[in-house]
Structure formats: structure tokens, C-alpha cells
Design a protein that fits this description.
The chain is mainly alpha-helical. It contains five helices and four strands, in the order αββααααββ.
Length: 138
């Protein structure tokens, strides 16, 4: 038991790592960025098709920004270059997903959500492009 404790906490270090505020920021960024794969895997398994949920892009954005902040603080050119521009496609994908979600149509007959390009509900066949439909989803 004492040897396990020694491996976990020794000389004021947790797992042999000397912790600081900035080290915690870096590890949080790493944890957030890595968790996106679990989120994407879960969503894919749930739908039984490849899915990239909105939360994947949010985790990507937050994790990469935390890692960029850590890299800037540490003046580590590898971290800075690795995360300096990754936020661009993450934000663009969030914008595209927001636009697509906003444009979806709700069937007035069965409440099925249809893409903006659909003229008819895939579930019941009701015309979703005409004036009788419910308002578009926000």
C-alpha cells in the first residue's frame, strides 16, 4: 500500500508531475480535446452510422483553445503552431450546423423533422414546403 501511495504522490508531485495553474490548463485542454472522440464514437454507435455531433465541434474548439493558451504561456512553438489555426474549421463547422438546424422543417401532420430541401415528409408524405406547415425550427 505504501509503494502505491509513493507512486501516486511523492516529493510533492502527483504521478511524478509538478503541478501548477498552467499545467492544469494544459491538462484540461488535453482532456477536453481528447473527450471529443468518445462523444463522436458514442453518437455513431447510437445511430449505427457515422455521426459528428455539434458537441464534437465545441469540444474541439474549447480543447484546442486551451492547448493554444497553454502553448503561448509556455512559449512552446510546437503547441502554438499545432493549435494556432485549428479553431477556423471548428467555428465554420459550428456555423454550418447552426444554419442547417435552423433551416429544418417540421411536418405539420406527424412532427417529423425534415431538411430544408425536402418538399415532402419522409415519414407520412405530407407536403412540408407549402404554407400549411408549422414554422421552421429555431
Amino acid at each position: 500500500m505504501d509503494s502505491i501511495t509513493h507512486l501516486i504522490w511523492h516529493d510533492g508531485k502527483l504521478f511524478g508531475i509538478e503541478w501548477s495553474f498552467w499545467k492544469a490548463i494544459g491538462w484540461c485542454g488535453n482532456a477536453v480535446f481528447s473527450s471529443r472522440f468518445i462523444v463522436q464514437w458514442y453518437a455513431t454507435e447510437k445511430k449505427k452510422q457515422v455521426v459528428v455531433p455539434t458537441s464534437f465541434w465545441w469540444l474541439s474548439l474549447v480543447g484546442s483553445l486551451l492547448l493554444l493558451i497553454y502553448g503561448l504561456r509556455q512559449k512552446d512553438s510546437v503547441f502554438i503552431f499545432a493549435y494556432a489555426f485549428t479553431w477556423i474549421p471548428y467555428i465554420r463547422n459550428l456555423m454550418i450546423q447552426h444554419k442547417n438546424h435552423k433551416a429544418k422543417r417540421l411536418c405539420g401532420n406527424c412532427d417529423t423533422i425534415s431538411p430544408a430541401s425536402a418538399n415532402f415528409c419522409s415519414k407520412c408524405g405530407t407536403n412540408v414546403s407549402g404554407p400549411s406547415q408549422k414554422p421552421e425550427l429555431a
